Amino acid sequence: MKKKWMVWVGGVAVVVIAATLTVVLFMGRLVKSAVETWGPRVAGVSVEVHGVALSPWSGRGEVTGLWVGNPEGYKTPHAIRVERARVEVAPLSFLGEKLHVRLVEVESPEITLELGPGGNNLKKILANVEAAMGGGGGRSGTESKSSGERKLQVDRFVLKGARVRVGATALGGTVPVRVPDIELENLGAGPEGITGAELAQKVLAAVVESTAGAAQQAATSLGREAAEAAGSVGKQAVEAAGKVTRGLGELFKKRE
Questions:
Q1: Among 256, 247, 212, residue whose Cα is nearest residue 124
Q2: Has keyword Secreted (predicted)?
């Protein structure tokens, strides 16, 4: 009887070890698949990831080729493109109820702020995320919390070196705008943590605020430059500068 019991325990141990090794070996693929499945459902736009490399032993890894599309009706090919993001995860948290992410560092993302139907594209995506959280006809907050979605804790989120292009109907194209680095800390630090949608909402809200503020400063600066140009260059150049300024202004008149 004891021998049979030991054989049974050994068999269970083998199954558990095999399952754990499967998760370890295919961790990157699992994360990639999860992002590409969950992202569109929450953000309401296409989300693609080229690759995810993540070591369950050290917790270090990176995401490459992240592409967030635009809502329907917008002309630019994407809202956000990230060539590389570095992540650090507490290894033991892979097996826990809450995934503890120590760091997410997004390097030199390319962000496009475009005016289109219903306002600018970033605010539209943010509205989709908030709706998925229950703020706009989506799931209720109670349903979100009881859905069994795995919770997260992100100690530090950094977005640096962002390249932002601002576009509007009157521009006939886009103009580049510099955006200050963004840093968020202690997201989901409490015992309940936060959901992926809540994390996306906080990050997107910070991106929208920072991008809009920088773009508005650019519009003011361009307005001054257009006025100064009136005394030193020809009519065609002044009209072109004024066109850019008016186009940027559209983003703020209609962004709410």
A1: 256
A2: no
96: left (phi over 0), alpha (psi -120 to 50) or beta: beta
For residue 10, give its domain range. Answer: 2-253
Domain total for the chain?
A: 1
pLDDT of residue 27: 61
Specify which residues 170 forms β-bridges with.
none
Condensed to tens digits (0 to 9), the pLDDT of residues 164-180 reads: 887 654 445 566 777 88
